[in-house]
Write a structure and sequence with these properties.
Layout lengths: L18 H6 L4 H14 L1 H12 L10 E2 L7 E2 L4 E2 L1 H11 L6 E6 L5 E5 H17 L7 E5 L4 H13 L2 E4 L6 H11 L3 E5 L1 E4 L2 E4 L1 H9 L8 E5 L13 E3 H5 L11 E2 L5 E5 L7 E5 L2 H13 L8 E4 L6 H13 L3 E5 L10 H9 L3 E4 L1 H13 L15 E5 L5 H11 L6 E4 L33 E4 L11 E6 L9 E2 L3 H8 L8 E9 L5 E6 L3 E4 L2 E4 H9 L4 E11 L3 E10 L6 H18 L8 E4 L13 H8 L16 H6 L3
Parallel strand pairs: 4-17, 6-7, 6-8, 8-11, 11-12, 16-17, 16-18, 18-19, 19-20, 29-30
Antiparallel strand pairs: 1-2, 3-13, 4-5, 9-10, 14-15, 15-23, 21-22, 22-24, 24-25, 26-27, 28-29
Helix pairs in contact: 2-3, 4-5, 4-11, 5-6, 7-8, 10-11, 13-14
The chain binds 5'-O-[(S)-ethoxy(hydroxy)phosphoryl]adenosine (WTA).
């Protein structure tokens, strides 16, 4: 198991659901939760079939709920047809939400723009008609590389409307990462912006697309559609590039949604695994949307009067499910925020909650921890300096939330009245899996509590046998569920091997270590593979190592994670150069050069926090790098393990000293 195992099961505080909340909740009280659990456990297909019929609009009803004949390549609602965008937009026009605000967009600089469901529908249709006029259609694949904006939601929804499978690339990724994704997915279309605004600065986006395409192998790309965000100067290829507004504005606001099979890939989203190459996680249309909508209603207790705010970027799965699809399918009003939590100051989140009367706020522990520090440094940025009385529910996602941060969030942001839903899930699961239901589940700070109805989460040993409460093991999901990953794009072997290893009885292996307590509450202990979680973002150690060794100065590199107060984990790289080991100023200069290199190869989120140079790396006599020891050294701790199998034990001393 990874280094991030935390001291768990020490937390004894329990917070029952507030009575007022429970009374009005979509799932109310322990009995409400238990009834759904029982229904799903006793007759899973009946349960999922009922949910899918009641919650989605099908253009062709399905007759089979689950097809397991090619497990683990499961098919859900496999002969049904629907359109995801019609379920998110047209459905709201039909049920009286046409003039309801769908999105309140707040720009980095504070400007606010609102669109109703009718307006959003029209924008999506116009853009979809534009794409259609260029010949794009069902089965094509697009890359979306956009800043947080109404346009990003429009682009994703327009693709969904036409049956174009999108793959969104987070704006912080480099041209190299973008290139990898364009070629892997076989995109014929790229949608980007001239620049993005973050923290008062304009950051170019389109140049990265130009660079990526120039790297070769992207011949399938016919157009690059550019959203003019800033009007900054960019290079232009008249044969390929088109302004989004030139394409969309003149089009009709009506575009017939294309009915697709429930299993049609709605999107492919790349995420880090334990090897160097990110995996293209392929999601479905029907099963995915069903879970996006249901979890909005269950976990977030979605109500017509809510103002929902998920602070994630649409470049990550959280932004897909809880910005672009879930809140719209549930007919909510939501905030889309372009900027960062610390600009113009660290009170930004609290001010936005106050200004827009946000009721439901969903963010990451990293953001909370950094805002705790900022509010301690300056009381003006403390949540207590703002009116946060509109809040009724808080959420956390992406990494374990430490009990101290949980308590601060509960007290200072939630005014001790708002339940906190600590939602455990993954890119691969499509939506929440283990989480409290705010009107039903007693909360324990630091635990994501209990499984959602229909989700057969369990802790098992290496042979798939159940592990007793209080003991650690592998977190698995025993039975398939509708929003599960369908495949790794172009790599079915890797899909089977990574997620359904033969020794685990066909269970889905999440890649997290965890334990259950006697109440059935789950405590996540950290990844069991070489995946780090830095600020809630997944990062493969191998990915960073491959980037480092691609630098001309580097002979060898080993990357490990180290616990970090703010970012959860931090990247520490141990590097052997082709030349002699640098010291002093030279080591600092080369360290900076390598950090910038990693930012260019992958993206700034992958930059090592620290680089240490050695004459060698600690290796066994058979040449295997002992990462376990490097993790100890990275933490600044003394190595107490037996090092007799090491070929070169003295190297540990050298690597123990930060540069
Ligand atoms: C971790 C993000 C503890 C976990 C939605 C998982 C969490 C990985 C939690 C998935 C949580 C996510 N408590 N750990 N509430 N939520 N994780 O694919 O290690 O970016 O495997 O999906 O984040 O990260 P991903």
């Amino acid at each position: 198991m990874s280094n991030s195992i935390q001291s768990v099961l020490v937390e004894t505080r329990v917070f029952p659901p507030p009575q007022d909340f429970a009374k009005q909740a979509n799932v109310s009280g322990a009995a409400g939760y238990q009834a759904l659990l029982d229904e799903a456990d006793q007759n899973p297909e009946g349960f999922w079939g009922r949910m899918a019929r009641e919650n989605l609009q099908w253009t062709k009803p399905f007759t089979q709920v689950l097809d397991e004949s090619r497990a683990p390549f499961y098919r859900w609602f496999g002969d049904g047809e629907l359109n995801v965008s019609a379920n998110c937009l047209d459905a709201n026009l039909k049920n009286g939400n046409a003039n309801k605000i769908a999105i309140i967009f707040e720009a980095d600089g504070g400007e606010v723009k609102k669109v109703t469901y009718q307006q959003l529908h029209d924008l999506v249709c116009k853009f979809a008609n534009g794409l259609k006029s260029l010949g794009y259609k069902h089965g094509d694949r697009s890359i979306i590389y956009l800043p947080m904006s109404i346009e990003a939601v429009v682009a994703m929804q327009a693709c969904a409307r036409l049956g174009i499978t999108h793959s969104v690339v987070f704006g912080g990724f480099s041209s190299k990462s973008l290139h990898e994704r364009i070629t892997d997915v076989g995109a014929s279309l790229v949608i980007t912006a001239d620049e993005q605004m973050r923290g008062g600065k304009a950051i170019p986006l389109k140049p990265a697309v130009d660079e990526a395409i120039a790297m070769g192998g992207c011949e399938a790309v016919r157009h690059c559609i550019v959203y003019k965000r800033t009007g900054g100067k960019i290079a232009w290829d008249a044969k390929r590039d088109i302004w989004m507004s030139d394409l969309a504005d003149k089009q009709s606001p009506v575009c017939e949604p294309v009915a697709v099979n429930a299993e049609h890939p709605l999107f492919i989203l790349y995420t880090s695994g334990s090897t160097g190459k990110p995996k293209g996680v392929q999601h479905s249309s029907g099963g995915y949307l069903l879970w996006a909508k249901l979890t909005m209603q269950w976990t977030f207790d979605a109500k017509p009067s809510d103002i929902f705010w998920c602070t994630a970027d649409v470049g990550w799965v959280t932004g897909h499910t809880y910005i672009t699809y879930g809140p719209l399918a549930a007919g909510m009003t939501q905030i889309v925020f372009e900027g960062v939590p610390t600009y113009p100051d660290a009170g930004r989140f609290w001010k936005m909650i106050q200004d827009h009367k946000v009721t439901t706020f969903y963010t990451a522990p990293t953001a909370i921890r950094s805002l705790i520090k900022a509010s301690e440094a300056n009381a003006a940025h403390h949540p207590k300096s703002y009116d946060l009385s509109s809040l009724r529910l808080l959420g956390s996602v992406g990494e374990p939330i430490n009990p101290e941060a949980w308590m601060w969030y509960h007290t200072n942001v939630g005014g001790e009245r708002c339940p906190i839903v600590d939602t455990w899930w993954q890119t691969e699961t499509g939506g929440h899996m283990i989480t409290p239901l705010p009107g039903a589940t007693p909360l324990k700070p630091g635990s994501c509590t209990t499984r959602l109805p229909g989700i057969t989460a369990a802790i098992v040993d290496e042979t798939g046998g159940d592990v007793e409460p209080g003991h650690g093991g592998f977190l698995v999901i025993k039975r398939p569920w509708p929003s599960m990953i369908r495949n790794i794009w172009g790599d079915p072997d890797r899909f089977e091997k990574s997620y359904f290893p033969s020794e685990l009885r066909g269970y889905y292996l999440a890649g997290d270590g965890a334990q259950c307590d006697k109440d059935g509450c789950f405590w996540i202990m950290g990844r069991i593979d070489d995946v780090l979680n830095v600020s809630g973002h997944r990062l493969g150690t191998m990915e960073v190592e491959s980037a480092l060794v691609a630098h001309e100065l580097v002979a060898e590199a080993a990357v490990v994670g180290r616990p970090d107060d703010t970012t959860g984990e931090a990247v520490v790289a141990f590097v052997v150069l082709k030349r002699s080991r640098p010291e002093g100023d030279e080591a600092t200069a080369i360290g900076k050069q390598l950090r910038d290199w990693v930012a260019k190869e992958i993206g700034p989120i992958a930059k090592p926090k620290e680089i240490r140079f050695g004459d060698n790396l600690p290796k066994t006599r058979s040449g295997k790098i002992m990462r376990r020891l490097l993790r100890v050294v990275a933490k600044g701790e003394q190595v107490t393990q037996d090092v007799s199998t090491l070929e070169n034990p003295a190297i540990l001393d050298q690597l123990s000293k930060p540069v």
